[in-house]
Specification:
6-stranded mixed beta sheet, 21 strands, alpha/beta, single chain, 40% helix
Length: 464
Amino acid sequence: MKQHDAMYIDGSWRPAAGGDTIEVVNPADERVIATVPAGSAADVDAAVRAARAALPGWAATPPEERADRLAALHGRLTERAEEIAATVTAELGSPLAFSKAVHAGVPLAVSASYAELARTYAFEEKIGNSTVLHEPVGVVGAITPWNYPLHQIVAKAAPALAAGCTVVLKPAEDTPLVARLFAECVDEAGIPGGVFNLVTGLGPVAGQALAGHDGVDLVSFTGSTAVGKRIGALAGAAVKRVALELGGKSANVILPGADLAKAVGVGVANVMANSGQTCSAWTRMLVHQDHYAEAVELAAAAVAKYVPGERVGPLVNARQQGRVRGYIEQGIAQGARVVAGGPEAVEGPGYYVRPTVFADVTPEMTIAQEEIFGPVLTVLPYEDEDDAVRIANGTVYGLAGAVWAADDAEAAAFARRLDTGQVDINGGRFNPLAPFGGYKQSGVGRELGPHGLAEYLQTKSLQF
């Protein structure tokens, strides 16, 4: 077991202000693998002060030089990709192949994109007789979740640094080890002291101190809608900007004429990825009533291939395991039919939940309305396209979704009717430059690509 006692503040590893620690548990075998400091408000204050002191110099650094540092950071992350994957597997429980492809691979693509955007973004433009400047917003407080621990760090820190902002990161307490690895890469990349700072700690202590700190100009948070509301209230009291990427209950709509087997298979894989711990997962599959029975059979057969401990990993902790099993039990109590999986415990150690498919689900059921955040799929029938739109839009969320049809034009026409921030058309590929974010209670603002960079900029106009 590794015992860490320092945080990365002002370009060096320094001891925490107090002696409290957080245990990091491998959710696959329930063993403690490390401890990290449980940061206090004093640690947050030290990090914010370092970030404020470093802000003028970093903001004045030409974008090309910031791009060079980001390229160097990308290089260090690339060199340590195997270590990154192994670290995420140890603290999150993700199967190693998925960690290599996604938990390590996606942050590499995103960090490379911001190294390039820092060189090409129009930080200055002419509009009539005005010169419009896009300047860094200031000190960014970044609070990241455990489900995609490195991706969420890179999706916040890389655009903030490209914009000329300085950053204080508070990662999720369940997955702090890859955040420490990221800080090491920042240091190795030659990014000046104070530009990036890391404070590990608990959300109600370190997270709240960071969100409410007077020295923070923008809070970027990814996590639950309930916590996002709290952070929004803290920031609103100081008229502070926020970027919130919150929950989802995304619909996977399969229209008549679509390749049903492909749509169901890809949809199941989407929900089971990362053990269902994905805010944008298509957890509601909507199928025309004429094809509903066939779709349910296909989904049940597909889920049977996701064996706990092999193709699907554990949930992050015992609390999350109990929460997801509770949702499955609630679905049964409300009349939904389990066609695969169920609430029964998985034998052996680890916080596993049986991959589960529900049929006979109505839109009003809890399992069709609330974010479960586990390997649970609900399959709902619809009568016609208007009914499908009503069901798809009938939650408080609007983060992502998918549409399958006989051709892309038909699918795109339907997608335009959905109240959601991102829609995959007939299995469209992930694009690290496309804006990602939600409608309604799924959040405020966008991440990734030029839209993600713009979140960390403020605008000034000079009239001539």
